[in-house]
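# nightly structure sweep
# worker-07 picked up a monomer target from the shared queue
# config: single-sequence mode, recycle default, output format = structure tokens
# input follows
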Amino acid sequence: MLSYMLFLSSGLFLGWSLGANDASNIFGTAVGTKMLRFTTAALIACVFIVLGSVMSGQNTADTLNALGGVNTLAAAFSVSLSSALAVVLMLRVGISVSISQAIVGGIVGWNVYTNNPTDMDTLANICGSWIFCPIISGCIAVTLYLLIKKILHHSKVHILRQDLAVRVGMVLTTALGGFALGANNMANVVGVFVDSCLFTPVKLGGFYTLSGVQVLFLLGALAACVGVFTYSQKAIKTVGKNVLSFSPVVAWIVILSQSLVLILFSSQGLEDFLISVGLPPLPAVPVSSTQAVIGAIVGIGLAKGGKGIKWSLVLKLMSGWVASPLIAFVLSYVTLSFMENVFRQAVFLP
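# output follows
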């Protein structure tokens, strides 16, 4: 078990990176507009990240495993470490990037290194989600923005009551965003360790039992919580303030839109329903909360005429989306080579 935890440490490092990077997407706009204090928002988000990870985090893990079945602990360690380093490198230059894209780059790096074929259908579904995720988020955000703008225009609610309603909405959507992040993105953190999981079921007070895999996801969620509290504020400054000047209502709409998108891409039931009625499905895949937030921000900015959008910063963020999987791919390939040739660890089992 000690050696297992040593290998798992890279997954926990990636979990820390998830919290450090993606907290800005859950409540960055709320903190940036000073509707919620950082500590309050972080605590709410962390509680629901844990719940989402344990209750629904496994839904998207199968997709990553279909992309490339990383089947040794040494390989899982290498892929996770490479993905985490790619994210941290982007964070160091103030770019909030996609954990989802980084882990895909790491897995494809393992496929190439081990001559293991990449499932192109799965890769197409994942890459397709990178395109549709910000578009869907933008459409949801624009719809909500226009609807709420019309409601507020015709309502006679006092400004103080509006402020209270927005603050309550921020709390609820921060909770929803935390749950959605855990449910959708925790597979990025520990998904490659599922096949080699050594944890045994744990009983909680005699009324609920965590499976071994749920224990694995719980550890990943706790690592993400540490990342939220220790390193997320730099990315929050980028997303929460700099891309577009927010009103409190717009900030709330951004958080709600990205949360809904993550839930849409986490639901196996929704995918099955859309297929049953003959509609194109939204696959249960890990998607980028960063892309969802930027899609919502840009959508609202365009609805307002597009003048307030800082396109140079948007392009900088988008460059990170391209760079992070490429960096993770290279680091994964190099790390796997070191693991196999220097440390004499098996990185592939036929």
